[in-house]
Structures are given as structure tokens and as C-alpha cells.
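Hey, I was hoping to borrow your eyes for a little while. I've been staring at a protein lately and its backbone has me curious. You're getting the sequence in one-letter code plus the fold written as C-alpha cells. Would you mind checking whether the C-alpha cells look sensible for this chain? Here's the protein in full, and shout if anything looks odd to you:
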Amino acid sequence: MSGLGLFLAGWFGFSFIEYLVHRYVYHIPATTPGRAKFQYTMHGVHHEYPKDETRLAMPPIITVFVASLLFLIFRFVFNTWAYGILAGFTFGYALYLFVHYAIHVYAPPKNFLKVWWTHHAQHHYRQDEVAFGVSSTLWDHIIGTMPTKRTAD
């Protein structure tokens, strides 16, 4: 597989992992006190304070740890393909960080970010059980978690 193909596979893979983590880890049902604390610590506080710039990404030390762990896993599973895949995966994460920061910190944009801003605003302010994709709406379309269209009353 070409370097570009590996990069695109990593980016595509990140988009799916982003969706899964946001839906099933960050929005884990708070069925026990431990789960409730985990959910609030990992993500609930972000929903409570969505404009807090300090709560929009993992702390750098955790990011380095996770990236190192992912590298080891990717290297074991994909051998030398890991480098291209991890490059695309890292690009996906960087794009996620950019989009997530921009849609939380800045006023509603009138540019290419508007689709992402509107989608994520639905998740935060109207329907937190849908719209789990941040840097892509692809998996929300495929899995059926797109927000419902609001009609005029």
C-alpha cells in the first residue's frame, strides 16, 4: 500500500475512533456512582462548561502517553505500515483539535466550519444523544445518529 493510502486509512480510522470514543466512552450511561464520576470527569464537565478553553482537549502528558501506546499497538499490528497509518491518525486528531477548539471558542462562523459548528452545537445544546462526530459527520450518517431536523412551529 502506498504512503498516501496508509495516511488516508489512518485518518479514516481516526474518524471512526473519534465517533466511538465520544459516543461510548464519553457518554457512558451513568448507571453507577463510579460510572457517573468517570463520565463527568472525562466529558460531563465539558458539557457543563462548553466555552471553557482549558477543557477542550486531553492534557498534553496524557496525549503523549496515548500516542506512545498507540504507536506500540500500531507497530505490533501493522508492522512498518504503522508509520503511515499513525501519521494519518495523528492528522485526524490534529484536525479534531482544531475543529473542536474553533467551534467552541469562536462565534458561529460564516465559512467552512459552519457545518461542524452547527452539528456540534446540536449535540451540546439540543440533543446530546446524537451528533457524536466532531471533525466529521460521516459516522453519524452511517450509524443513524444525525440530529433530527427542526421544523418551524
Observations:
- Residues 82-105 form the longest helix (24 residues).
- The radius of gyration is 17 Å.
